[in-house]
């Protein structure tokens, strides 16, 4: 009895499975598995006695090379090198963590609107009109605009939160 041979339908089944994963997870790595298994299945269509060792060699070489090249192109060639501040990703400020904190206003709140800066991010504030230098407590974050912070005056209460 001769050894087990893979046929083209084995490779095309792998193609369908890999395509499903690629589309479901929106990832290019399973797409390269699908492409390489399609190529090997196509080779077997025309040459059914193609050695299994070469089938696996072509499959793994194409999958690995495609995955590495795609990763390098998507992430950029210099991802691991030092980047300047201009190229650094923006910091994400979790404004929901500000609720309950007391802040000192650098700019006044006029007509219920103002701004303040924290960790390099300028946030808009809404609350009772207040002068610069006054302390206010963060009481909430707008549900639609996370950069809009709701504040209320401290009314002379001396609390040291922030």
Topology, element by element:
Blueprint: H1 8-25, H2 29-46, H3 52-75, E1 102-104, E2 113-118, E3 121-126, E4 135-141, E5 148-153
Coarse structural class: alpha+beta
Secondary structure: helix percent: 25-40%
Which geometry do the CA atoms define? rod-shaped
- What is the number of beta strands? 5
Termini, distance in Å? 79 Å
How can the largest sheet be summarized?
5 strands, mixed
Could you tell me the strand content as a percent range?
15-25%
How are strands sequenced across the largest beta sheet? 1-4-5-3-2
**Total number of helical segments?**
3
Number of domains: 2
Mean pLDDT across all amino acids: 82
Compressed to H and E, one letter per element, the order equals: HHHEEEEE
- Assembly context of the chains: single chain
CA-atom Rg in angstroms: 30 Å
Low-confidence stretches: none
Which features would summarize this protein structure in a list?
single chain, 162 residues, alpha+beta, OB fold (Dihydrolipoamide Acetyltransferase, E2P), 2 domains, 5-stranded mixed β-sheet, 5 strands, rod-shaped
């Amino acid at each position: 009895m001769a050894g087990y041979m893979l046929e083209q339908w084995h490779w095309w089944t792998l193609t369908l499975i890999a395509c499903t994963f690629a589309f479901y997870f929106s990832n290019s790595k399973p797409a390269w598995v699908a492409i390489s298994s399609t190529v090997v299945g196509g080779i077997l269509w025309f040459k059914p006695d193609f050695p299994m060792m070469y089938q696996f060699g072509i499959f793994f070489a194409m999958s690995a090379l495609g995955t590495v090249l795609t990763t390098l192109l998507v992430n950029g060639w210099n991802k691991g090198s030092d980047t300047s501040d201009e190229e650094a990703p923006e910091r994400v400020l979790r404004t929901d963590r500000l609720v309950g904190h007391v802040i000192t206003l650098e700019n006044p709140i006029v007509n219920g609107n103002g701004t303040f800066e924290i960790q390099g991010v300028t946030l808009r504030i809404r609350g009772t009109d207040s002068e610069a230098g006054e302390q206010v407590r963060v009481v909430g974050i707008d549900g639609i605009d996370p950069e809009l912070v709701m504040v209320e005056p401290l009314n002379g209460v001396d609390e040291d939160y922030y």
